Amino acid sequence: MPLDITTKRVADVSDLPVKNADGTPMIDPDTGNPITAVVFGPATKIWQAADGLRRRKGIKRSREANGKFEAALDHEVPDTIEFLCAITKRFNGIEISGVQGDADTVRAVYTDANLGFVRDHMFEDTRNWENFMKASQTPSTSGFDSSLG
Question: What are the respective helix, strand and coil percentages of the chain, to the nearest 5?
Answer without folding.
Answer: 45, 15, 40
